[in-house]
């Protein structure tokens, strides 16, 4: 939980952003970009697409900066907008595959793995990531927010507009599908 002085600093920045101060926007969002990129990278399986999603999210937040509320934390709002941009990209990707346009999702993956992907068994990690990519968007969101980002069920529910019970069920289903796919791969 943020300390009161951090909350007041953020609230002051939000007020400046709402007034149109670009420098305040940069100071507000730049420290949060790595976390947003991590979420987008895990949702999309591609660093370049994650960068596009975060850039689009930040542009959208800047355009609608009057919606920012000084008394509410910015990270959950930015995370929600970023997730929405990821969903948009996933829908476009699915539509492109449906109509035979563009590359297969597996071809869209980055060639060079992130440093965290180099740890451990590369083949197994690649299979897990591939299976995560195949999860339906709602299940993937729950998995990324809870298991990877370490959010609580309540936080994830607030970001996705659902209930903690719904998040719990989605997480259960995502893990079950992954377990089944990995058991099939190993067996």
Automatic annotation (TrEMBL):
It comes from the Bacteria. GO terms for biological process: DNA-templated transcription initiation. InterPro entries: RNA_pol_sigma-70-like, RNA_pol_sigma-70_dom, RNA_pol_sigma70_r2, RNA_pol_sigma70_r4_t2, RNA_pol_sigma_r2, RNA_pol_sigma_r3/r4-like, WH-like_DNA-bd_sf. The keyword Transcription applies. SUPFAM superfamilies: Sigma2 domain of RNA polymerase sigma factors (SSF88946), Sigma3 and sigma4 domains of RNA polymerase sigma factors (SSF88659). Keywords: DNA-binding, Sigma factor, Transcription, Transcription regulation. Residues 127-178 form the RNA polymerase sigma factor 70 region 4 type domain. GO terms for molecular function: DNA binding; sigma factor activity. The keyword DNA-binding applies. Residues 29-94 form the RNA polymerase sigma-70 region domain. NCBIfam families: sigma70-ECF. Belongs to the sigma-70 factor family. ECF subfamily. PANTHER family: RNA POLYMERASE ECF-TYPE SIGMA FACTO, RNA POLYMERASE SIGMA FACTOR HI_1459-RELATED. This is RNA polymerase sigma-70 factor (ECF subfamily). It comes from Sphingomicrobium lutaoense.
């Amino acid at each position: 939980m943020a300390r009161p002085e951090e909350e007041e600093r953020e609230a002051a920045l939000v007020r400046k952003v709402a007034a149109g101060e670009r420098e305040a926007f940069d100071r507000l969002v730049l420290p949060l970009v790595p976390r947003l990129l991590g979420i987008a990278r895990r949702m999309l399986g591609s660093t370049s697409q994650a960068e596009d999603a975060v850039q689009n999210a930040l542009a959208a937040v800047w355009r609608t900066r009057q919606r920012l509320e000084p008394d509410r934390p910015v990270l959950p709002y930015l995370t929600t907008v970023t997730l929405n941009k990821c969903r948009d990209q996933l829908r476009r990707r699915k539509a492109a595959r449906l109509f035979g346009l563009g590359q297969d999702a597996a071809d869209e993956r980055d060639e060079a793995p992130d440093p965290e992907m180099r740890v451990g068994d590369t083949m197994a990690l690649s299979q897990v990531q591939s299976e995560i990519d195949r999860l339906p968007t709602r299940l993937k969101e729950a998995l990324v927010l809870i298991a990877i980002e370490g959010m609580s069920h309540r936080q994830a529910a607030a970001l996705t507009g659902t209930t903690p019970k719904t998040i719990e069920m989605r997480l259960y289903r995502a893990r079950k599908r992954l377990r089944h796919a990995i058991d099939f791969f190993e067996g």
